[in-house]
Design goal:
Blueprint lengths: L10 H14 L11 H8 L3 H14 L2 E4 L2 E4 L4 H24 L7 H16 L9 H13 L4 H18 L6 H19 L3 H12 L3 H17 L2
Antiparallel strand pairs: 1-2
Helix pairs in contact: 1-3, 2-3, 4-6, 4-7, 4-9, 4-10, 5-8, 6-7, 8-9
Length: 229
């Protein structure tokens, strides 16, 4: 039986996907107003699909209304504290559950594929760029998802979407890029070798064992977004 041809995406869907990609990869500042007319001109569409796409992005939590317009969601410092705490909890739980339950094992093949990707980053170092946050998120999503609980993965994806507008500015320096690549490789190698307690310690260090350390990084990133206003 032949596979029926896929219907082309609607203009609303195309605009939604394009805007979401721009928002999630640092190509739109949290202080750039999402004006319907300008977006419509850029994507060569009418304002109706733009309006519908923006409404969907607002429902997703990626866009918020402030100062009389729509902007990329930017959490307050208080919101960041709670979201970072949840992120750390979800990240660690992926390995903790594999340590606690003998019948839970990580998907080694998926992790080896992800590890190869990070070997590539190590050997061909990317230029510091805010969009690198998407690479970081993919690593952590794969690490959690490979532990076999899709609910943890789904929750982590939601948290990441809420803090991305701040976290993406953490990848504008060589030292942060180097640390991220090195630590990701270390964590994945430990999990692949089934050295889970050591992997948990490495992950805890990576995401920030102390809430104070995590929030200091977040505060610096938030301050940088304000400087770029």
């Amino acid at each position: 039986m032949s596979t029926p041809p896929q219907r082309p995406a609607s203009r609303r869907e195309q605009v939604y996907l394009a805007l979401r990609d721009e928002l999630m990869n640092g190509r739109i500042s949290p202080y750039e107003r999402l004006a319907e007319e300008r977006i419509a001109e850029r994507h060569d569409v009418s304002r109706t699909p733009v309006r519908e796409a923006l409404a969907r992005l607002q429902a997703d939590g990626l866009v918020e209304k402030r100062d009389g317009g729509l902007y990329l969601y930017l959490p307050s410092f208080h919101e960041l504290a709670g979201l970072y705490e949840l992120r750390v909890t979800l990240e660690l739980r992926g390995i903790e559950r594999a340590i606690a339950e003998v019948d839970i094992h990580h998907d080694r093949a998926r992790l080896e594929t992800e590890l190869d990707r990070w070997y590539g980053h190590r050997d061909h170092r990317p230029t510091p760029d805010a969009g690198f946050v998407a690479e970081d998120e993919q690593f952590h999503m794969t690490l959690v998802d490979s532990s076999g609980n899709p609910a943890l993965t789904q929750a982590l994806v939601q948290v990441n979407s809420r803090i991305r507008s701040v976290r993406m500015y953490d990848y504008l320096t060589e030292n942060r890029m180097t640390a991220t690549i090195t630590e990701h490789i270390e964590i994945a190698e430990l999990v692949v070798r089934d050295r889970l307690p050591a992997a948990l310690d490495a992950l805890r260090h990576h995401v920030g064992a102390s809430q104070d350390v995590v929030m200091e990084r977040a505060a610096n990133a938030l301050a940088m977004t304000r400087m770029m206003k």
